[in-house]
């Protein structure tokens, strides 16, 4: 049996409403509304303050049991607190700015890179135009957008220029070592 799946998903009934229709779970809260359909073998029930997931005794579905509970927990946290990813920009002339709701990057390319936010996602940029914050209720979408932005100019290993997550350690390489002593 899954240890994660057996833990009940607890939520605050004052701020969150959970509705289960078959294998579809809808969660509403102050930060938005999320819905997701799960594996048909999972039996999901919602009581007053918790969500319970029952799985069949099939060992192949143990991982699905724990994942279902984790996804429902992420939905509840998302509509109450929300999720946030912070990206930092390193490099001379590299910057980001908001144009309306869109995020526009100058990354040393021949063109500017524009990112449009999907529904439920908000961008913010600091005054120095070096830190970008991505916020939203859906953890998967926030992470996917952050990954897409980072892939526009990933950090390079020699000078560390590019876009990286806040707190990410960029592995640095030494430059050309043999140039000084070579003949």
Keywords:
single chain, 183 residues, alpha+beta, Outer Surface Protein A, domain 3, 4-stranded antiparallel beta sheet, 3-stranded antiparallel beta sheet
Question: Could you characterize what this model shows?
Answer:
The chain has 183 residues and is of the alpha+beta class. The protein has 2 domains: 3-80, Alpha-Beta Complex (Outer Surface Protein A, domain 3); 83-165, Ribosomal protein L6 (Outer Surface Protein A, domain 3), CATH 3.90.930.12. The protein contains 3 helices and 13 strands; from the N terminus they run αββββββαββββββαβ. The strands form 4 sheets. It has a 4-stranded antiparallel sheet, covered by helices on one side. It has a 3-stranded antiparallel sheet with strand order 1-6-5. It has a 3-stranded antiparallel sheet with strand order 2-3-4, with helices on one face. It is elongated. The chain starts with a helix and ends in an 18-residue tail after the last strand.
Q: Helical content, roughly? A: 10-25%
| Largest sheet data | 4 strands, antiparallel
| Assembly category | single chain
Class of the largest domain, according to the CATH hierarchy? Alpha Beta
CATH topology of the largest domain: Outer Surface Protein A, domain 3
What gross morphology would you assign? elongated
Overall average pLDDT:
88
Order of strands, widest sheet: 11-12-7-13
Number of helices: 3
Assigned CATH architecture of the largest domain: Alpha-Beta Complex
Q: What's the name of the CATH homologous superfamily of the largest domain?
A: Ribosomal protein L6
Instruction: Give the total of domains.
Output: 2
Q: Which residues sit in consecutive blocks of at least 5 with pLDDT less than 50?
A: none
Q: Can you count the beta strands?
A: 13
Alpha-beta content class:
alpha+beta
């Amino acid at each position: 049996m899954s240890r994660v799946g057996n833990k009940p998903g607890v939520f605050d009934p004052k701020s969150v409403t959970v509705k289960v229709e078959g294998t579809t779970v809808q969660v509403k809260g102050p930060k938005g509304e999320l819905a997701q359909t799960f594996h048909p073998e999972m039996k999901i029930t919602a009581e007053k303050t918790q969500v319970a997931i029952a799985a069949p005794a099939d060992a192949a579905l143990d991982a699905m049991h724990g994942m279902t509970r984790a996804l429902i927990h992420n939905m509840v946290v998302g509509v109450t607190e929300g999720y946030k990813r912070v990206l930092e920009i390193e490099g001379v002339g590299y910057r980001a700015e908001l144009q309306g709701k869109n995020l526009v990057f100058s990354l040393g390319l021949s063109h500017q890179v524009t990112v449009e936010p999907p529904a439920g996602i908000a961008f913010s940029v600091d005054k120095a135009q070096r830190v970008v914050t991505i916020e939203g209720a859906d953890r998967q979408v926030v992470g996917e957008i952050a990954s897409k932005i980072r892939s526009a100019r990933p950090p390079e290993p020699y000078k560390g220029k590019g876009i990286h997550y806040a707190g990410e350690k960029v592995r640095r390489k030494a430059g050309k070592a043999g140039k000084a002593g070579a003949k």
